[in-house]
Every structure is written in C-alpha cells, then in structure tokens.
Amino acid sequence: MPENDDPRWPSDDKDTSSGEPKGAKGGGEATVWLPMSGLANGKTEELAVPKVTPESDSWFSPVVEVEEEPDVPETPTPQWSAFAPVTPVEPEEPEAPKTVFVQPVQPRQTEEPDWDQFDRGAATPTREHELARPEPLPQEPQRQEPQRQEPQRQEPQRQELPIQEPPRRPEQSRVEPPPPAQVPSATMHARPVRIEPAEEHFDSEATVGIQQLESPSEEPPAVETASAPKPKKRKRKVLLITSLVVVLLLAGMGAAAATPKVSNRLGLPWAPNAPKGDIPKPAGVTRVLHGPDINGVAPTKAGLAAALAGPAGAADLGTLTGTVVDAATGDVLWDKNSTTPLTPASTTKILVVAAALLSLDHGTQISTKIVQGADPGTVILVAGGDPSLTSLPLGTDSPLYPGAAHVDDLVAQVKKASGGKISKVQLDVSLFKGPTSAKGWDPEDTVAGNTYMAPVVPVMADGGRNDPKSDHAPRIANPATALTQKIAGKLEAQSGGTTTAPKDAKVLGEVKSQPLAEFANSLLQLSDNMLADVLARQIALAKGAEPSFAGGAAATLDVLKQAGFDLTGVQINDGSGLSDQNKIPAKVLSEILAVAAAPDGKDPRTAKLRPLLAGLPVAGGSGTLEKRYGDPASAAGRGWVRGKTGTLSGVNTLAGVVLDTDGRMLVFALMSSGSDQNKGRAALDVVAATLHKCGCR
After folding, report:
1. Which of 357, 512, 525, 552 has its Cβ near the most Cβ atoms within 10 Å?
2. Which residues cross the membrane (predicted)?
3. DSSP state letters, 186-219
C-alpha cells in the first residue's frame, strides 16, 4: 500500500473496561487486538473493539461513501461479502469473525467535524478530534473469546452470510431502525473498517452496527443499509455551475438595465430621462375647442392707434397702407389710407380663392383623361387644367399637393383598357386660350430654371417642377410636353405631338385632383403661382368666360362683385399676383377676410369663405410664414398670426387674422410699397405681433 494509506490511530487506545485479561478465570470479555499493516518497524498495531451502549429510541444511519479501491499487491483474496462481517485468517491460528467499530470523533461544542478528512490518504486527526472511549454496554452477557492460536497457513473459511436486500437509491431507500440493543447511539458517527486477511483495510460498505456472531450456527440479525450518497465533488461541481449561471444572468440583467433605453423604459433611478424633480400633478383637460371670444371686450380705436403708432410708422415699411377690423362686428378699428390701391403681389390670391369658393362647389375636382385616338394604337392625353398631378409612385403622397392624382394610376388604367397595344401618345392642350404668360410679368418668370413659374398650360406634373418633393425646385420650360413623353415611355410608345381629341372618344383612363377646398389650401400655403392662375381659368370656365389670363381675371372680379364686395380701385391681370400691374386697396382685402372670419350665421357668405382662413400660413409654423417671426420684436406673434404674404421687388404685403390677448379676432391688411424685401417683411411682422399683444382698451 502507499505510505499515505497508513491509518494513524493512537497506539494505546485499548478497551479494558469490561472483563478480565485474557486467560483469567471467570471468562470476562478480553480486549481484542487486530493487526494493522503499514508500520515501518514491522510491529503490529492493534485496535480495541469498543462496546457501544445504545440509547433508547435512537436512530443511526451509516455514512457510506463509495470510493475507488486502491491498488494492492496481487495476492489471492477471497470474495468477501460487503454486507456481513468476515473472519480474518492469520497464518497460524484463525481468528473468529468480529465486527470492528472505529471510535467516533466527539465534536467540539456543536460543530461536527468533516469526516472526509479521515478517508484513506488523509491527514491524522488532531487532538481535538481524538477518539472517545465509550462506556461498556450495560446488561450485556459476557462472551468468551476463543483463544488465540498460532497462525497456520490455510484458506479462509467463508461464513454463512445473512440474506440482505441490495442497496437502494437514496430517493427510494427507507431505512428502518434496528433493535435498540443492536444499534449504537445516534450521537456517535463511526466509520467502520473491514479487515482483510492480507492485513489491508478497506472502508466497509454495509457492516456498520452488525454485532459479532456468537457462533457460526447463530444467524446474525438482518440490518438494512442505506445506499451511498453521491460524491460531494459532484455536488460542488453542480453548485459551482449553478452559481456561475446565476452570476452571468445577474451580470447580463445589470448590463441591460444600465443601457439608457432599458432604464428609461423601466423608469430606473439612473435613467437619463428620469424626472429630476417631483412629478407634476395632472391638470384638467378640456376637449372642446373654443373659437374667438365674440362677447369679449374689443379694442378701442384710440387704444389701438396708440399701440400701432410706433410699429406702423417704421421707416423700413416705406409707404404703408392698411386697416384693422373687428371680425365680430365688422367695425374698422384702425385705418391708414386703406382705400389707396397698391401693388398687392401674392395677396392677389386672396381674391382668386375667394371667387372660386363662392362660385364653385367645394368638392369640385379637375379631371385629366386619356382617350382613344382616331388611329389604331394611338391615345390622346386630354388636359383638363390640373397642374397638381404627381409623378411619385403609387402609395407615395405628394408633399406639395396632398391628395393629388398619380400619373402611374392613369397609365395603369390605360394599359388595362387597351391591352397594352399602344404605339403613340398625343397631347390635347386646347382647353386654355391665349398666351402662357401674363401682362406685367418679369420676362424671366417663364424661363426654364426659375423657381416661381412655368408657362401656364392645362396639364403638367408636380406644378412643372423637376423635383416632385421640393417647392423650390426649378421649373421646366414646357411641362405639358414633358408629361406626354413620360406617359409614352411608361406605355412603351412614342410621343406623337399635339392634337384635338374627338368629343365622343372612348375614355381609357381618368384621374382627378384634390377637391377644391384642399386644392385652395395647397395654393395658399405654398403661395403657388401656377395653381392660382389655373384656378382663375377654372372660374372662367364655370362662368362661361374664356379660360385665359384676361378671362380668368374678369371672371374673378365678376364673382366678387356679385357677392357684394366693393372692388373700387381693383385691377388684376392674373390670378397669381406676379404681375406688377395689379392694384388692390387694403380695404378690399380686409373686407373679404372679415366676412370669412365673421361669426357663424351672421353673413351667408361666411360658410363658403371659411376655408380661406384654414389655408392661411401660421406664423413661425407653416407655409410662407414658417421661417418668420423669429426676431424678438415679432416673436409674440408666433402661432397667433395667420396671414397671406406677398412679395415683389419693392413690395411687401401681409393680410390675415390674429387673436388679441382678450381672445378677440382681429382682421388686418397691410401693404408696403418702396420697402426693402427683408426689412419690409420684418417690419410687417412686428405690426401683426403688436395686434396680438394689444388689449388696447
């Protein structure tokens, strides 16, 4: 055996508590000496067999561990049973079988020693864990041990073994308590040792607690044994793996909780968006929108004149005319030469939109068609006057003209109706008459590449721009021809020039523009010149007039006059306001807006003109006013002022509505002539912002 397998028990641990010495009369139980191997000097170390006094009603479960058998010299070893005591045979004298108990280690105070340290190859127990000597068993008949004889070399004799059940798994075994007289005290933890004839010792598997046999003929009591538990190393490995998994999970959760997105979602204290102060108490919300306070106190003329004296007298405004009207009553609160006609620039669009809303149904849509041509395989694009067609793919709404019709939709209808057998696409632009530019326009306004205007023709895509998503994109020189070529390419045909479609031609495809109210909204928000001049022609068509610049202007004024507006001093040559020959007094602009802003039911014209207010850009928020009202002097008007802008060289105009501090709706029209573009605009914004700040009583 290896040297570290030498058990180091105390050399003088003898049990002399019972009986007389060997050979004495009376036959008291003598101390039994068992040979132990491994001493360097050849001496035989012996262990005493203690007598254990069982406690009543005690319970004892042997501690059995399964370990590998150590390497031993190759000597004939009989097959010993693991469930019964064995009788070792010495060379000269056989010795009766005995059950050997190792003295238990008495724990210090309440601590239980780690029995793993007493396994083979472990260090010798310390003095604190020395083996205790139990008291002799009371009332136990003394047995006389057979005399020791000289050892003889002979084969060991096998004892009759009791029939015992095989060991069970820990979860299945149920250990029944043995008779009290045969079980040691539950307070003692003994580790049995099996003595083999070759003077080698092994941990016994199931001999703990079995009494020594009186004789071979006596049957030893049956003892149930507990199955061996799993090695602690495996438990430690499982515990280590479990702990590692838990640590990794906690680390992962901690790392996730540290990310801003997760911490914000969970509302953790370290979240970047965590509130820095107390959460405010919820406030009541009124879901009813309130209009202007028509019963509130209106500004007085004197108060308003005092408030506007400075802003309206600014030198940056050049020559200023204007008026302020109380929308609830129609009373004029402030006036400065409002009947003097001045160049209105794009505020001319107010007249065109008002005339269209008064004369046309608000759901009116402009149609664009493709019809069957006279020749086989020929189709004709019939222009109906809609410049808002978009070349963007189906499913993509136009950012310039929300709700506009798609060119791809028109092409898809034609392919389906014709079976795809198209060879030529022609263009019919006969709807509009007269020149494609108006009197008073700058010659550059219709030159390709400018951003303001393109030749006014009855059909085009995206207002004639080369980029369908940008309001400031350059316009093309001939937008109708460009659209015809685009459609021909989609139909895998050729563009065949202009023609006039037969009146009874078969319609292969048709698309329609946004309704009039939405069309007018886009026109006012962008101050779109093309849409304004096309709309003037639609008014002319509705009135039976010629759809030209002159016919559109005349039809616009006729509608307004018929509606009861005083147009003294008004002269217009287009619907866009690009003509510097246009003249409109501020009074006319304010009267139209005042009717649109009047209380419901007060004027029958109000219901038709109300969409005009919805299309006005919001100061600092939308349309042509989106980038204005950023200066401190005009910042008070942000979100409160809504107005239509007008700009030409030396001309700046602004007309719209605003709520004052008392919730009163005020209508204003301001026209500046001879002013610088940037300075004039800023000065007009200050005047409008002053109206918002004014209680002016």
Report:
1. 552
2. 238-258
3. TT-----EEEPTTS-EEE-SS-TTPPPPSSTTSP
Contact 322, 588 (CB under 8 A): no
Distance (Å, whole) CA 670 – CA 634? 15
CATH class of segment(s) 301-360+547-693: alpha beta
Residue 435 identity (one-letter amino acid): P
Q: Is 623 left (phi over 0), alpha (psi -120 to 50) or beta?
A: left
Q: How far is CA 229 from the centre of its chain?
A: 51
pTM exceeding the 0.70 threshold for the entire prediction: no
Set 349, 543, 587, 608: catalytic member? 349
Q: Say if residues 353 and 686 touch (Cβ distance below 8 Å).
A: no
Structure tokens at 540: 């002319």
Count Cβ neighbours within 10 Å for each residue of 373-402 and write b for 16 or more, e otherwise: beeeebbbbbbbbbbbbbbbeeeeebebbe
Per the DSSP assignment, residues forming a β-bridge with 131 are: 105
Token output for 337:
């030469």
Cα–Cα distances in angstroms (integers) from residue 460 to residues 346, 382, 465, in the given order: 22, 11, 9
DSSP string of 287-340? -SPP---TTSPPPPHHHHHHHHHHHHT-GGG-EEEEEEEETTT--EEEEESTTS
Task: Considering the candidates 227, 263, 338, 346, report the single residue annotated as catalytic.
Answer: 346
- Residue 660 CA to residue 657 CA, distance in Å, equals 10
Interacting residues of 450 by C-beta distance below 8 A, sequence separation 6+: 444, 474, 475
Whether residue 61 lies in the annotated active site: no
Q: Quick one: DSSP state of residue 502? A: -
Cα distance between residue 423 and residue 492, in whole Å: 7
How many Å apart are CA 348 and CA 80, to the nearest integer? 121
Q: Which residues pair with 45 in a beta bridge?
A: 36
* Structure confidence by residue, pLDDT tens digits, 175-234: 444 444 444 444 444 444 444 444 444 444 444 444 444 444 444 444 444 445 555 567
DSSP 477: S
Contacts of 232 (CB under 8 A, 6+ apart): 116
Which of 398, 513, 522, 527 is catalytic? The answer is 527
> Is 173 labeled as catalytic in the residue annotation?
no
The ranges assigned to domains in the chain are 1-227, 233-266, 301-360+547-693, 367-514
**pLDDT (tens digit, 9 = 90+) per residue, 272-293?**
766 666 777 777 766 665 667 7
Amino acid at 375: D
